[in-house]
């Protein structure tokens, strides 16, 4: 029997998203500010090209593309986990103080003169975990630990406090102010593959824990009684999920700064395609997160060439109107 579905509906969404990601990665290597045009950069992908083109493509554009790929996937998955855990489609890592705690910890270390990438990654992850644990503890003391709305409000309060303290650091240390200011705006430029290698151990741990918790988390999304009836422990599920999110967001923040909005939009798109099941959503977050971040990075290079827009600012400018349209149109996929 011949299917009546349109041809594009016959392609599995993860496969289509993976192919689109491949095309966008190629575009990221070919496009950018400067004198190296796409025609000059294309031969480099096949082992040729001039020395200048090879330097631009292999030493500058390729590392930032790989960093954007990893950071986008980490933030996308972290957002999906957070929204499922809190059962709140507007939740993202920033709402529970995770991104703010990570940002503040790294800003403090930059003021103290830290420059080792490994140290920055671990400090960022510890800051992310500390921020989340603080808001969870505060919520539990108030007796609202299981209330997702009150939990998000507590996280928003902590986020505002930590962001204000991070801004104050710019006033007290002019020597580190420029570096902190550049990092806080968010960017994947200027990173190299050595910096990316430092993320691999913690990302490997996060992936292993995510594979362990994904099925129990899917059960928990149906309610605590349903999860307990299936033999899962809700408290343990929450703890592991928070740890995974802290590892993912901490690693992404240490590498690229606090890139906002990616962890909110990516799960929206993934759920609209795959439905509310977290197991299918995460598979789509892996390519959709990098797609959004790499496209934003390409635009940041081209819009004000030869200068460059901060990536974090651009994702906010692009993402905020999209979120408003989704909310006003009442097209938010249900959790």
Automatic annotation (TrEMBL):
Biological process terms in GO annotation: siderophore-iron import into cell
Determine the domain of life of the protein's source. Bacteria
* Keyword field: Cell membrane, Membrane, Transmembrane, Transmembrane helix, Transport
Q: How does it sit in the membrane?
A: Multi-pass membrane protein
Task: Spell out the subcellular localization from the entry.
Answer: Cell membrane
Membrane spanning residue stretches: 65-82, 94-113, 119-139, 151-172, 196-214, 235-252, 281-303, 309-327
Q: Which GO terms describe its cellular component?
A: plasma membrane
Could you tell me which SUPFAM superfamilies the record lists for this protein?
Answer: ABC transporter involved in vitamin B12 uptake, BtuC
Gene Ontology MF, one: transmembrane transporter activity
**Entry's family note:** Belongs to the binding-protein-dependent transport system permease family. FecCD subfamily.
Can you say what this protein is called?
A: Iron complex transport system permease protein
Protein species of origin: Marinobacterium mangrovicola
